[in-house]
Amino acid sequence: MNAHAKHTRALKAETRRLFVEAVDSLHQAGTGDVVFGGMVDGGAVDVEAVAGAGKGLLSSLIVSTGRGLGGRALTEGTPQLTRDYEVDPLITHHYDEEVLGEGIRVLVAVPTLHGGEVTGMVYCGHRTDYDAAAPQTGDLVRRVRQLSVDLARLGYRREPQPVPVAERLYPDLDSSGREALRHTYAELRAIRSGILDEETREKLTVVETRLADILSGHNPDDFQTPVPAVRLSPRETDILSHVALGWSNARIAETLSLRESTVKSYLNTAMVKLSARTRHEAVSIARSSNVLP
Length: 293
Known about the structure:
Blueprint lengths: L2 H26 L5 E8 L2 E3 L2 E3 L10 E3 L3 H9 L3 E3 L13 H6 L4 E9 L2 E10 L3 H4 L3 H18 L20 H19 L4 H19 L17 H10 L5 H8 L3 H15 L4 H10 L5
Antiparallel strand pairs: 1-2, 1-3, 1-7, 2-4, 5-6, 6-7
């Protein structure tokens, strides 16, 4: 066995160990009655860690893209939840035998992410109703976010690609000026989110893009606008742009006319996508990934 094959084998063994530990920990903490998961291999989730199951139906499950709840999470790269698995019309029911065979009513699928790509999936199944299961979802997302970070440290790292050095548009822009522009950028995002007229929204988008170019020193005449390495939803970007200003969730919620719990939910999802452990790390990764200016 050559060195590369040995490294690959060791990496797979270590990722499996991390999934087994995470699944067992979630189950022991009462986060789910049945917890299972595994890495993505060949475009499908290969379940290899299971806790709390009684019939062994889940231990060899392979979930394909677009199939079932996990398949949807695999496609969209975001956590997915069904309140009543058996009758949910929005998911395919390719895995009913395995899921319903364990008596699961509520199912949550949370992907592990690295660089915006899904690397694995963790499922939490509940045999109770949604009201009893709902309080556990926040802890699940937080734990899977940490698992994403741990998996990334193993070796799921891409070599940094050389980026063309663009002419800086505003070399004399000092740190206080950049911070003022970041405040302006966040204010525009907040204003834009409350406008229904599409033409006005498009005009504001042009101004936001121009501000992002100024903040990054990017010259659109010489280089195309960099493609973000991670894709966040508009609302996730709105919230991160305000987190970058050091604002609390309560202040962000008031500014964007949202509930504080909604802000936390969007922020958690953004952190999962960015494989970030803290809100400040999320801002740093978002800027380096061209998601935030």
